[in-house]
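Suppose you are handed only these lines of text.
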Amino acid sequence: MATSRYIGPTPLHCADVASAIIAESLEGRDTPVLGVATGSTPLLTYAALVARSFDASRLHLVLLDEYLGLERGDPRSFGSTIDRVLAGPLGVTSERIHVPPHDGEMTAASCGRFEKLLHDLGGVDLQLLGIGGNGHIGFNEPGSPFDSRTRVVELSDRTMDDNRASFGTATAMPTRACTQGIGTILEARQLLLLAIGGHKARILHAAMDGPITPSVPASAVRLHPRCTVIADAAAIAPPVG
Ligand code: GLP
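From them, the structure of the protein bound to GLP can be written out as follows.
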């Protein structure tokens, strides 16, 4: 089966397994390229990866998405988060960290240049993914076509509510982001989707066992020839109600 599933008893077990899969996927690559996700889900995995002794001296990190309208150094930006939790501890320098275009004039050309960069790097070896409460991957909200590419998107009300906590006031929350498309994500050589916590149980079940449909963007990972889904016991508990 193309999609393999691993259920870890605890989030720490999941992080340990996920970090082992990531380290193995990058081993021996001339230009290792790791696609990174933000949100709370991957944090333990990043800590576990940092604790592994693996060679990050040539590692490139590519972000899935970024809010529009935040400076690169804004602590609430996804770029800054990755600097803090992964790039800094691994010693990955800024020229090896690639963030989707997010400032200045956003055009099809700037998104196209980001896609070309992924191509020029030799493609993404492993793309780590979380799953949004509405099934989004990156910021591909429900309805995003499976062949979508890097582009600017409007965030859904649900996503804004879920992510608002990191922005303090409601007005400070960006309403738009630039995200790799689902088609872009599916081109990575390997996918690793992480789901942690009972609040992900309902949507994980829909994505993994329901129809493969743009209404549940994460269901697209089942089309990938090499995808691993790692969930903790809480995330696979039968949804209540
Ligand atoms: C954000 C990111 C997604 C991430 C999702 C889930 O919206 N764009 O890439 O998967 O949040 O976040 P969390 O892991 O905090 O539940």
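What can we learn from it? The chain has seven helices and ten strands. Residues 59 and 92 are 7 Å apart (CA to CA).
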